[in-house]
Amino acid sequence: MASSAIYGGTYNLFAVTMKRMGIEFTFVDPDCPEDELNAAFKPNTKALFGETIANPALTVLDIEKFARAAHAHGVPLIVDNTFATPALCRPFQWGVDIVTHSTTKYLDGHAATVGGAIVDSGSFDWNAHADKYPGLTTPDDSYHGVTYTERFGQGGAYITKAVVQLMRDFGSTPAPMNAWLLGMGIETLPLRMAKHCENAQAVAEWLQKHEKVAWVRYAGLPGDKYYELARKYLPNGCCGVVSFGVKGGRAAAERFMAGLKLASIATHVADAKTCVLHPASATHRQMNDAELAAAGVSPDLVRFSVGLEDVNDLIADLSQALELV
User: Fold this and answer.
1) 133 exposed, middle or buried (CB, 10 Å; 0-12, 13-18, 19+)?
2) Radius of gyration of the chain (CA)
């Protein structure tokens, strides 16, 4: 089961690719009441998934609500913490069992590598729900007949299986140079995230006052729907991504983007360089109108990933591009 407000590529993986493999997902509105969230679970539900800050809807997940629901139904909560990073949010503190990252984004921070990470808290008791997770609680013929929960315990069973069987079989292993570059990027993560947040806050406040901007979504803005959740889960900042709508809809958004000079039109996001994208015609183009609405992606939505440039230069670029609309 997964939040409906997630990255388009992840949605496609869950709704199409994994469905062809016999794995089906139920999608739920992340803002739904807790009773509605609990009602969405099925007897065969194996996990609950969400994004700390959804890409590009910028929904802030109520992590504790999702953790309560997951644990009440005997499944782990998995959270993608790519946009928040460990510098802004520590999901384990709020009951998350497994954290994932696209390390391609802020963790690297310079568009130098492609990669991903899984971080296991070791807190979920697989043996307490052994019938749901036979891959961990029964002998694995592909690895000397080991039972992971017996051999590696609650704290090591899941991540050990991921390494010794799944990485081995699927080949999802970073090249040494990619790992080294990622390590270099992580060294400056707290400094970079502070600047991303500072720039994004200034950009969001400026956009909010512009006559050609229909709306702005950034959880650091007082009055934003997720402002209070952000104060709870993201007290040090809300990442560097701002979503907004240009008055005039899709066509106006495309004219605005074409007029930018400093910001680059790119699918990439969460980088030292400012990038901009129109998700409805790019990362989320495989979704129909109803799916787009559930994901929080309107036709006029522009995703503006604020980089580390001088914020006055960024605002000047936004200003001249909006004048062209």
Assistant:
1) buried
2) 20
For residue 231, count other CB atoms closer than 10 A to its CB.
Answer: 14
Evaluate whether 124 touches 70 at the Cβ level (below 8 Å).
Answer: no
Alpha-carbon distance of 27 to 37, in angstroms, equals 10
Which of 127-132's residues contact partners 24+ apart within 8 Å by CB, and which partners?
A: 127/154, 128/74, 129/74, 129/75, 132/46, 132/74, 132/75
State pLDDT tens for residues 97-136: 999 999 999 999 999 999 999 999 999 999 999 999 999 9
Write the CB contacts of 105 (distance below 8 Å, at least 6 apart in sequence).
82, 83, 269, 270, 271
Side chain identity at residue 68, one-letter code: R
**Structure pTM?**
0.93
Q: List the beta strands (DSSP E) in 104-205.
A: 116-120
| Unique residue bearing structure tokens 């391609």 | 104
Strand-pairing partners, residue 60, are 53
